[in-house]
């Protein structure tokens, strides 16, 4: 497989966003970060109220990237076998044999819609597949397709009948992305596009082989020691027991981000740099992905609840406490 250059990655990103713009209005940052996670082999958690085009963004992205796509609607009665598949008893030549029926997890891009609507046993089945890139049924392991990305959604406004993901499972997601309401001009354009005409048919612009080449380049891209030092300093500053933790971390954090956060800060920065046509990231790229890597990994304490502080406030503070120019 031939190597791909940073310039080619940047051009590929431009082609993807131009094609995506035919259907999606706004949400440029969400699209960019979804591509960063895909290029870095990470998974995403999308948090937003209904009607913000979460499903449309992911499905359209799969069409453009020529990836197989499945949407799983999580419900309280969904079972692990509904996701990873199961063995079914079949009669063959007067003999009963078990035949494996693959579940929807065998695809390149999965939209796990409202993942907090299903019990922990079913959540764990998907999260294990995310981590291991394989499933085990009937004592036999089966490898998932490559590339493999899960984009899970959560509705933040409803808590009844939900099963919040434990902190250890949230750590499996590279990014936690929050979708906000569109601006008025964007919403007017959305209404025009969706009520006056059919959505356009998109043309796949990227081959799967190109995507795999980008993923390999992300791993191979060099990183300066001072950039790694800065990423580790950001992650460790969220840990209240660390002597160099920020004051807000010491006051309002129960548990800080672990080493996986440092890893994802660097991987995200590398992928983001490639989108800009650069072979190696700087601290600016680390800062750009920091909020999305850290906000679901910083667990606040009861004092934070009383003071009205959220994890986003703490991360914003430490981005000032650990200034970029010192590196």
> How do the helices and strands follow one another from N- to C-terminus?
HHEHEHEEEHEEEHEHHHHEHHEHH
Strand order of the biggest β-sheet: 2-5-8-1-9
Helix content: 40-55%
Q: Strand content of the residues, in percent?
A: 15-25%
Write down the overall geometry.
globular
Instruction: Give the tally of β-strands.
Output: 11
- At the fourth level of CATH, the homologous superfamily of the largest domain is P-loop containing nucleotide triphosphate hydrolases
The value of Rg in angstroms is 21 Å
Average residue-wise pLDDT: 85
Report the major sheet: 5 strands, parallel
CATH class wording of the largest domain: Alpha Beta
Number of domains: 2
CATH topology of the largest domain: Rossmann fold
Low-pLDDT sequence parts: none
Number of helices: 14
The CATH architecture of the largest domain comes to 3-Layer(aba) Sandwich
C-alpha end-to-end distance: 36 Å
* Global structural class: alpha/beta
